[in-house]
Amino acid sequence: MFLPLQDLVSTIMQMICVSPSPIQHDIITSLPEILEDAQHSEMARELSLNLDLGLLSEVRQSVMVTVAAVKMEDLPVVVKFVLRSIKATDAAEVLSDLRKKVDLDSCVSFPRMQASQNKLRSQLPASLSASQVSLNQDCVKLLFEVIKSAVKFEKTVLEGWVKAIEDVSSASDHKVLDLIVLLIIYATNGKSKKQIERVLRNKIRLGCVREQLLRNAFRSHSLVMRDLFPAVLSLAENFVHSADPCVVSFGSCLYKQAFTAFDSYCQQEIVGALVTHACGGNNIEVDISLDVLTDLVALHTSSIAPYAVFLKSILDYMENLSPQQIRKLFHILSVLAFSQGHKSSHIQDDMHMVIRKQLSSTIPKYKRIGIIGAVTMVGSMATKRSKENGQILERAQLSKDQCRQITSLLELVCSCCGQVPEALALYYDELANLIQRGSLDLQILEWMGNIVAKDFEGDFVTDLVATDDSAFLFPVKALYSLEEEESEATIAINLLPLLSQNYLFKNADEIAAKSKDKRLVSPLCLSPFFRLLRLCVSELNNGICPLYLTSLEVGGKLDSLSKHERDFLCSLLFYALNWFREVVNAFCQQKDPEIKGRVLARLQNITELQSLLEKHLAANPGYIPPPANFDSETLEGLPVANTTGASKKKGKGQKHAKSDTSKSRSEDSSQLEENTEANQPESESSQLDKDSPDKGQGTPLVQLQSYSPYFRELDLEVFTILHSGLLTKSVLDTEMHTKTCEVVQIGPAELLFLLEDLCRKMEHALMPAPAKRAPFLKGKGNRNVGFSHLCQLTSQAVVEHAVDLLKPLCNHVENMHNYFQATTAENHGVVDGPKVNVQEYQLMSSCYQRLLHVFYLLFAWSGFSQPENHGLLKMGLHVFADRLKPGERERPLEELLSQGFQYLVNLKSSVPSIYCALSLTRLLLVIAEKSVARLKKNEIASVTKCFLCQPWVQPNGARQKGTQFNDALHTLFCIYMEQTDNILKVIEDISSIGIPELMQSKDGYSSTYPTLTRQTFPIFFRVMIAQLENSVRSIPSGTPSDSNEAQQEKLLQWNMAVRDFHILVNLVKVFDSRPVLSVCLKYGRLFVETFLKHGMPLLDCSFKKHRADVQSLLKTLQLSTRQLHHMCGHSKIHQDTGLTSHVPLLKKSLELFVYRVKAMLALNHCQEAFWVGVLKNRDLQGEEILSQASQTSEMEEEEEVSMIASEDPVEEQRQEEDTETEDGIDLKNSDDSSD
Question: CDD domains attached here (predicted)?
Answer without folding.
Answer: FANCD2
